[in-house]
């Protein structure tokens, strides 16, 4: 069986570690923007480059019909979508896939802060050519 390397293995492990640290310090029950602010502080501490609230236009027939904002893009490689919920839904995954498709990034991390734990799901860009 061939060994398959994970995309951005070290960076994604560091990001997942940050998610667990945020959850361990803050605990459950906060709004998404509180978790995002704490997450950003730890990204700064780790000296990781990131952009926040990255605008993504929603196009239809060559016209902008809406707008979305990606929570974070780390090191111009990994799209981070933060959620506060008790489970990952199909919508959460589709939203992350949408962001990957329109930015051209290869990897997204869907990070869910639930009432009991933090869950991290790797989402790969299936639309890349």
Q: Briefly, what is this?
A:
This protein has 129 residues and is α+β, with helices and mostly antiparallel strands.
Keywords:
single chain, 129 residues, 5-stranded mixed beta sheet, alpha+beta, Lambda Exonuclease, Chain A
Q: List the helices and strands in order.
A: HHEEEHEE
Q: Classify the helix fraction into a percent range.
A: 25-40%
Overall mean pLDDT: 92
The strand order across the widest sheet is 1-2-3-4-5
Strands, total number: 5
Distance between the termini: 26 Å
Which structural category fits the helices and strands? alpha+beta
- Specify the CATH architecture: Alpha-Beta Complex
CATH class: Alpha Beta
How large is the count of helical segments? Answer: 3
Give the secondary structure arrangement, pairings included.
Elements: H1 9-26, H2 32-45, E1 50-60, E2 63-74, E3 78-84, H3 90-103, E4 107-113, E5 118-124
Parallel strand pairs: 3-4
Antiparallel strand pairs: 1-2, 2-3, 4-5
Helix pairs in contact: 1-2
Kindly describe this structure.
By secondary structure, the protein is α+β, with helices and mostly antiparallel strands. The chain has one domain: Alpha-Beta Complex (Lambda Exonuclease, Chain A). 36% of the residues lie in helices and 34% in strands. It has three helices and five strands; from the N terminus they run ααβββαββ. The protein has a five-stranded mixed β-sheet with strand order 1-2-3-4-5, sandwiched between helices. The longest helix has 18 residues, at 9-26.
